[in-house]
Amino acid sequence: MTDILLYASLLVPLAGGLLLLTQKDSANTRDVISIITATILFLIILSFYPTVLAGNSPSITLAEPIQGLGIVFTIEPLGLLFATVASGLWILTTIYAIGYMRGANETNQTRFFLCFAISIAAAIGIAFAGNLLTLFMFYEMLTIATYPLVTHKGNEAARQGGRVYLGILMFTSIGFLLFAILWTYSLTGTVEFKPGGILQGHASPTVALILLTLFAFGTGKAALMPFHRWLPSAMVAPTPVSALLHAVAVVKAGVFTVLKITVYVFGIDFIADTGASTIILWVAAFTLTTASIVALTKDNLKARLAYSTVGQLSYVIVGAMLANAAGIIGGAMQIAMHAMGKITLFFCAGAIYVATKKTEISQLDGLGHRMPFTFAAFFVGSLSIIGLPPMGGAWSKWFLLIGAADAEQWILLGLLLLSSLLNVVYLLSIVGRAFFVPLPANSATALPAGTIQEAPLNCVVPLCLTATGCVVLFLFGDALYNFLQPILPKTEP
Amino acid sequence: MSQIPSQLVEQLPAIQLLLTLLAAPICSMFRNGDLSWRIATVASWASVACAFALLHQVWGGGSISYEMGGWPPPWGIEVVIDELTAIVLLLVTLFGALVMTALRESLSSIMRHQRQSLYYTTFLLCMASLIGITITGDAFNVFVFLEISSLATYTLIARGRDRRALTAAFRYLIMGTIGATFILIAIGFMYMLTGTLNMADLSERLPEHYDNKVLHASFAFFTIGIALKVAMFPLHYWLPNAYTYSPKATTAFLAATATKVSLYVMIRFIFDVYGVEFAFGQMQLGTLLVPLSIAGILVASLTAVFQDDAKRLLAWSSVAQLGYMALGIALLNANGLTSAVTHMFNHAMMKAGLFLALATMIYRTQSSSLASLSGIGRTMPWTTGAFAILGIGLIGVPFTAGFISKWYLVSGALDKDWLPVAVLLIISSLMAIAYIGKMLDVMYFKPAPSEFAEIKEGPKSMLIPCWIFALLTLYFGIDTRLTAGLAGRVASNLLGAS
Amino acid sequence: MIVGLFNYWIVIVLMMAGLYIVMSSGHLVKKIIGLNVFQTSVFIFFISMGAVDGGTAPILKDGFTVFSNPLPHVLILTAIVVGVATTALGLAISVRVFEAYGTVEEDEILAIDRDNREREISVSTVVTESSQNERDQ
Questions:
Q1: What domains appear along chain C, each with residue ranges and CATH number?
Q2: pTM for the whole structure
């Protein structure tokens, strides 16, 4: 039964996407299909929980393209968490996207939803990948499927952004990631994900260091500097794409890959023993500080959020590279927490665009009173990203700080705190501007003061839901912690 | 009644050869191009069926030996079909038949009706001789068929619209004849030593002459000769022009089959006739092949990046891809050889598809310069879609056939601990991204020139074969039993013989 | 040594001469002549190989026990046919080249091509309809 469901989890989004093609002329039917597909997928993913909580990890082999190496899917807690986040937020994003795409009068909506569905299928494939080969295949599929979404507008800016997007992601994945995978394969004779890692005893500390560096840089989707440029470039895409893919599916696929490789290919004991993570740890620390500073200088709302994402992703990498229990748990939690927070912020950015056509932060003066729900949600999302209770983000930041303290990386600890302060500045300043700076005089004449002018309901409801989600996640922090425990080596407490 | 099928099955190797060989003169008798096309298409698809039947027979291992005319070897000519033969046979017939199907529409615009019959005749002759090279077990026969296929190829190329096709064909004729004659000399030397021309016999008798200078000379002549035919760097000089100026769809066929079959001859002779030990141990073929193939990969990929004619770009890419196959052979381990044989099949499929898709575009634009193809993604979305799938296959992106062969090749290099080689291969993949990306960028994003703004999608008879190629590329990226699976067994057979 | 292997020396001389002509001459017809000389040298080589000292023609008749090996001769018969076909095709292409370019000197052809490319760089593969018709006739 689980086998069938596992196949279904990959096929449902694809089938839904193809079904969309047949409904080109009827926008309403098409949108209903999208939502139903998303809901079915989410339910399927949820149905895996009893099995995984019982400690099982079902596995299937689809085909065997390389002798002895199959396309294998295995369900384990980390992947299931990622799949839940991606599929759950897909429902909300679909509802939101319908409102957004109609509100903004975008063209080629069928192609848009089709590519969206393929991207989700790829993300699920990454989540359940049972070995590096499978992971890599779906990783590339995700890159290619999202490319038409990035260039959706079809103008010169979109084209330029798309070129950078594809260029960097393809370059890093084929140049570094594929090479690292093949190297691992030739060293160990396997690329399977195994608890405790597969490299132990096959690689010298130097090789491990080079390999881990290749893996981390090769996962361009994790946006480590200097390979982060694609993420701001991808912001030319319509906002639902930025929201789901460039706050959740794509970037999370990147950090998820790094986390999974750390845990299941290297094994955190092996990393701790060899010190293989030194380079990447500091690259990530550098990235999260620098990205926060760059975010401060951006006036375009989506650009600021993009740099914020670059920074927040490095938290996950830091967690993985700390290679201790608290770090890994913190990193894994950060995947979910940041997803929920950041998607809220992007939804808000899109809602503002649909309602007022404003994209720059300096134009947002006083809009808080006109769009109260949107900006309230923005506030909640910001708090979660910063890591303040009672928002979900507090847990992940907390565990990461503990992880840094456990590893006695005091400089790192300082940088993490500094970056959180910067988060406060660049996120809350937006909220402050919207609520406390009065509306500019010239635009105030257009509408009487106190009028509420929100985006369509389709846009506002999802963003309120995700904002609520940030709070809910705080309450379930403990459950999440217990759920993620099995990915750690048995020996640790 | 039941006797007849089993007799037919026994005669399959001969039928395989005769189908196309006999269809050729029949075609030439008709002045009606359409009728000839029908005959040619039926014959080529029938030979695909034959190839599948033969593949089915050797699938479980073992090989078929067939005596032509009932004369037992070494006096008669033996036909040998093993797994490697079967895979090459399938490559030639299947891709040949697909191109043949698309050929009518492509030709009708450039050639008058009665001329077409002759063209199909030549095409069939070329196919028949390539089949002949593949299945024969006789060294001299290889030479004869090689020459027939070459003569047919020169004619096909010279039929291009551009007058430069003539010079390209002439150049190829000179190079090809020298190459073939070299091979003839090599065969002569072997005959001098052993008194036999049967390949199986040769491989048994040659080992006692391993220290003989005559055999060394023979090997040297053979290597140069076949390298010319394979267009292995730096003897690739004839290829880019020949591919660029030959008539549209013909390029698809040539790119798929001609060089691949020559490569097959190379593998056959090096491994089965001369013997691995002699070729790589005593003659140090590896020290020649490895640096040259890597240089070829890099130089040709780089050249491809800077081309502004789509056909020429793909032609240079072919030179690079042949380098991959040569490197796979030179690695001399299971993964390397598997990659070489798999890539032979995969590359034939992808390049044929790419050239065919390009032919469909040129059918509308009348030009293969990148400038005139700009914006074609909007005017001909289906053709460009197939082109894009095949293109990313060529890069070696997962879920396409190209990925499989690249994976094996890099694994092969890493198995030998040749880290720098692996790095260079990865770099060459990045170059492939550059040149394919350049084409796709132009096709999808540049605005279409005004005179081509209204062009329509290509004719269905060309579009469908294009998509078959594209879908096969995706299919063989996932289910590889027929390609890599079979190639793996071929590799262990070849290496096991040493 | 020299006398005994006389045939083979001739083969080498002819082969080198032929290859040299192919490489050095820019005239297409001369290239074909060179190619022929080159191929002929190989034919001689095969035939010499089959010869046996004091052997006769391979016809079975009482009293003759030593005779030349007939197989190389038969093979070369095939090779000659192939050679003739190649020559014919090469000459035919040369004629076509002359019709299209007005010359069969390689240098001049290259120069014409280069001029053309510079003149109409964008429409590189389109040929004027007239030359197309000419060739179809």
A1: 6-136 (1.10.287.3510)
A2: 0.87
